[in-house]
Every structure is written in C-alpha cells, then in structure tokens.
Design a protein that fits this description.
Blueprint (H helix, E strand, L loop, with lengths): L3 E6 L7 E5 L2 E5 L7 E2 L9 E6 L5 E6 L4 E5 L12 E4 L7 E4 L9 E8 L5 E2 L5 E2 L4 E4 L7 E10 L2 E2 L6 E4 L15 H17 L17 H18 L20 H11 L1
Length: 268
C-alpha cells in the first residue's frame, strides 16, 4: 500500500485526476477507475501535495526534498458531450432534431443551448433533459432561419464544457438537383437564401442578388456560395463544410445541378 497525500482534478476535464504519493505522481483519465504513473512531475520521488494555480491549467507538485515542480496540462482534452448533430426534420416546418452521444461517467442531466441571428447561446429548453436521454426535438423554431446548437452535461454536480456546435436550417427546397438537372433561377435563389441564413446565424452579412427568370447560372455563382459557407462555418467554430465532389474552375467548368445540391446539403 502506498500512502496518497493529495488528489486534484483538472479544472476543465473532471475525468483527469492526479494523486500525490510517496513514489511519485499517479494519473487517471477515467475519473479514478484506473491509474498509472504520470509523465508529469519529478519522477519516482515522494510528493507531498498537488494543486492547480488558480485560473490556469498549471499543475504544481510539492516534493519531499526536491523542491516545487510545475507542469502544463493545457493539452488535456475538454470534457464535453460528443457527436452533436442538428437536422431540420424533413416535412416539418417547425422542428429540428438534435442528438449527442452519452457521456461516461453518466450525466445526471443535459442542457441544450441554441443561438440564432448571431446572438449568444442561451438555453433552448425550459428545464433540464434527463441524463438517460441523448436527443431533443426543438419545435420552437421559425421557418427560414438557421439555428446553432451545443449541449453540456451535469456530471456529479459539475457542468461539463459545451460540445462542438452544429447547425440546422429550417427551409425546404422545391426539388432535389441531380447532376444533369437544369438549374433554374428559382433553384439558385432558394440556395442563396439558405446560405444567407447560415451567414446570419454566424453573425456575417450577405450580399447575394436575386436571379431573374432566364438568368444564366455561372460557375462563379457556385464558388461564391461555397466560399460563403466556408467563412460561416469557420466563424461558427465548425469544421469546414463537407468536401465538394468537384473543383470548379470559374472559366472552364460547366455548372451542374449536383454542384448546387452540395451547397444546399451543407446548409443542413
């Protein structure tokens, strides 16, 4: 048996624990279920105490005879729900389905956070969601808007960090566009409106015009929409949009219905 003189928890990720013992520092990455010697600290030496510098992620170790050691723990991943997805429900003009992965250790409750029109995130639910659930249907939405969602969990009385965000746009298109579909002015206008919704949710302004009947759809129209979505995703904090199937050369590529459909898919 080895005496444990101190245990500390990471300020961001409660799954990460460090214990001061007579034979060095031990570390757990699963809330104490398993332990192993830590690469942090002075090695095989008695450690009298551990603490974090207030407001930082610097771990301090007071040793028995070898002074005070410090280690940077900022590389520890955040403790937050993963797998967050948000999708407008097909055929319903006022519902967005949200899903995330269950946490381990289990959460007591979850809270879904929502943003629109570039505003700060706020509670999307009046109360907490049971920790036994990993989904929520947001029916308090408006047609023609993009909404951003994150979720956090309450574990052992402590809130986790917020998950990475996802977006959903409450809009329906007149029809799906296959590769050989002829693109109409209506199609480009509907897609521009959806992309503009995403940009508004990201707090960005859009300046797309309205294509009149008989307007020639150019390759630059597609590249402009792709770039606008890339900028909006970056501002929201989401990974870049899904890879588009074909590189468009503005002066050489023939515009296809599938090019516009890919942009629509990225507005979700």
């Amino acid at each position: 048996m080895v005496p444990i003189r101190s245990i500390v928890r990471h300020p961001r990720n409660k799954n990460y624990l460090w214990a001061a013992t007579d034979i060095g520092i031990y570390e757990s990455q699963d809330y104490g279920a398993t332990w192993a010697t830590s690469a942090l600290g002075p090695g095989d030496v008695a450690v009298d105490g551990l603490s974090f510098v207030k407001g930082s992620e610097a771990l301090l170790a007071a040793t028995h005879g070898r002074g005070l050691w410090s280690a940077d723990t900022s590389a520890v991943p955040s403790f937050a729900p993963t797998g967050m997805t948000a999708n407008a429900v097909v055929g319903q003009a006022n519902s967005i389905a949200i899903h995330w992965n269950a946490l381990s250790p289990p959460a007591t409750s979850y809270q879904v956070m929502r943003s629109s029109d570039g505003s700060a995130y706020a509670n999307a639910t009046n109360g907490l969601i049971s920790g036994s659930l990993t989904n929520y249907a947001d029916t308090n939405v408006i047609y023609g808007k993009t909404y951003l969602y994150k979720v956090k969990a309450l574990v052992s009385g402590v809130w986790t960090d917020l998950s990475t965000p996802d977006l959903a746009t409450v809009i329906s298109f007149s029809d799906a566009l296959a590769s050989n579909t002829f693109i109409r002015a209506l199609d480009i206008n509907e897609t521009r409106a959806a992309v503009a919704d995403v940009m508004t949710a990201a707090g960005l302004s859009s300046s797309f015009g309205t294509a009149a009947l008989g307007t020639l759809i150019r390759a630059s129209d597609i590249t402009d929409l792709r770039q606008a979505l890339t900028n909006a995703y970056a501002k929201i904090g989401m990974p870049t949009p899904p890879t588009f199937a074909e590189t468009i050369q503005v002066q050489a590529t023939t515009v296809k219905g599938s090019h516009l459909q890919e942009v629509r898919d990225a507005t979700k």
